What does this fold into?
Amino acid sequence: MTVTLRPALPFDIDALWALRTVAVRVSCATHYAPEQIAVWTATPVPPAYAAMLAAGGGIVAMQDEAIVGYAMLDADKHEVDAVFVDPARAGMGIGKRLLAALEQLARERGMARLQLSASLNAVPFYRAAGFASLREEAYAHPSGISLASVAMEKALAAA
It folds into this structure.
């Protein structure tokens, strides 16, 4: 089946957040405690999502009429805010395509580097895409919990 990419739009937010919740529950369960996953996935959509979408920072992967993945760029922070793929479609290269499109978007906006805070399960994915680990850190999640993560960065080639 063909997967196409398109800009994420404000009306996509609920579907994106639902996909993110499923992805966290499935993909992060190998590296985080069930109690952490429960709190992490119970949080509402952050207000920053609407702002990132309004700024054109979201990309959605579509398969037929279904959203099967998405990526978000926080242009103000030069940061990859999110890359999530439907766990039922993991390993199909969707995340790789989304991240490459997000990097292109960042280059078009004049960014020379991208940074991110990777969940422990996602570190190999980002490393394979050329991101370098800077340090292990405790990510202060908006829910009030602390999540072990890895700060990563990548220099972007000129557009």
